[in-house]
Amino acid sequence: MSAKSSDVVDVPGSIAPGIVEQRDDGNTSLMLVFPSPIFRFNNLDIDPLNVVRAALENRQFFPNFADGNYTSEDFMLQEEEVFAPLVEVIEARAAAALRTVLRYRLEDLKINTMWCNVHNPEPAASHFLHEHANSFFSGTYYAEVADDKSAIVFDTPLRTKVISPEIEEQNYLNTMRHAVPVNTGDLLIWPSELRHGILPYESRQRRITVSFNMMPKGKLGGPTWNYVY
Ligand SMILES: [Fe+2]
After folding, report:
1. Higher-confidence position of 52 and 3
2. CATH 3.30.260.10 fits 43-156+177-220, yes or no
3. Centroid of ligand 1 to alpha carbon of 158 (angstroms)
4. Are the C-beta atoms of residues 167 and 160 closer than 8 Å to each other?
């Protein structure tokens, strides 16, 4: 249900909530504001096998905290020719989504760091919750994962953990985390400040991903927009 005219208040910088639910009692309305935009893109014009090859060939890795979890020593893969097709597709799809859905006036959206990850199935690899500092949007391309068995977990950005009553029934309003399923060839992007992680990987298949951070080009720093990045 969308906002009605009585939800619109003339306050500079404020708009009506995107979703207003009238509850069953008829005397309560629920306004959902400030959602977190997580985009999942399918059908990229990219062969995941080429990305797997590029990720593994002549690549040095280091153990990244958890058992079985390895990350490339190089965090500037976006500069390698072999990753150029992937970089082009990611930047184009992500910029289009941020322009059309979030309505950002972006001159451009550029990957400024990119690395690859290998999770071995035994022992089952995981990755602790973390966020990406000094970045606008972050994302992952899933070059090789066990379809229907892979997910990335997002932690709530709300302060609902401070006081946390027992939950009678879990729903999308009280949940502390969302697991987003992904398949080989998918691309996910999310605001960089969202905490995320990977649960122990319940599959015998290895998991190869390419992760990245992005920054916008153009005017930043509302409301004056006087800073050009
Ligand atoms: Fe991450």
Report:
1. 52
2. no
3. 19
4. no
